[in-house]
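FW: tagging you since you asked about this chain on Friday. Here's the raw sequence from the shared folder, copied in full. Didn't touch anything.
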Amino acid sequence: MRTLIISIILALGFALPSMAGELSEVKDIVETNIKIVIKLVKDKSLEKQVRNKKIIDTVVPFFDFDFMAKVCLEKKHRKKLSKAELKKFTDLFVTRLQESFLEKLDLYTDEEVVIEKAKKVKKRIHVVTYLVSKGDKMEMNFKFKKTKKGWKVYDLEILGVSMVLTYRSQFSGFLKEKSMDDLIKKLSQTGSFGVPTGEKK
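HL: got it, structure written out here
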């Protein structure tokens, strides 16, 4: 028993630096990219189309959009799709997600950004971030999972509302009365299924 306890302590001791390094890495991802995005939003010399492309190019590498699209569509619906149809759904979902994300950035009015320490939640890492303005505070929780290409965002909670779960609920409700073809057509329309943001408190 004594040997077992010592082994566990040693194992934890060797694991801590690695965990601390991953927490620091993920927080740096959030901090670095938020700073870049805010700088681009504030740069009035950029044409909006150019600015938007720069913003998307910045954030895309750190979001697992394929995973998000997969989770947002229930398995029973995914099973009915061919690979080509699933790719089309994923591409359209990502387009609408990015479009809505850019629209929300236009509402930014020079709030202060406060980034909390990253914390381990089972095998995932969460980074809580606040947009703070006079008399107002909006909480966002970036949820990361480790992939073969590094740590990537798989969900974003805004004021406690999960983006992925909200989309999943929207799509499930839509598909109770309409077909997958109808959903694809709907996703093809600009402005459909916007990013849920909740209400400011």
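FW: Strands lie at 112-115, 119-121, 124-133, 136-147, 150-158, 161-162.
HL: agreed, and The chain has one domain: 2-187.
FW: great, closing this out.
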